[in-house]
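Team,

Forwarding the record for the chain on the shared tracking sheet. I've put the sequence and predicted structure together so nobody has to dig through attachments.
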Amino acid sequence: EYRGLIKHTGGCHCGAVRFEVWASPDLHVFNCNCSICTKKQNRHFIVPASRFKLLKGAENLTTYTFNTHRAQHTFCKTCGVQSFYTPRSNPDGYGIAPHCLDDGTVHSIVIEDINGKEWEKAVKEHKTIRDMSKP
């Protein structure tokens, strides 16, 4: 459906939450060092909302927010796994955890460190992060 993109599927550990996402088979993953990403080891790639579809489990999701409350850290109420969330940098998109994708569709992963401890400065200086949620 999307030129150059493939459909990945994934979900939480217990299977209560399932989703599909259209993205490249070669993922650009962010490794953020902000307080919550460090604690949760939240590595993610960003996609536009139009390329994400929750297949099941909306009733099984709960959300945690803090500080500016722009990031919506959604996770499964049963197993506690955050397979996707709404990032502060891209509130019109989703941050997808590559380790929550089903096997077989990812060809490669490039990891980019981002200095979330100085979030405002890092996002302002980054050349492409805010555009990653644009179709």
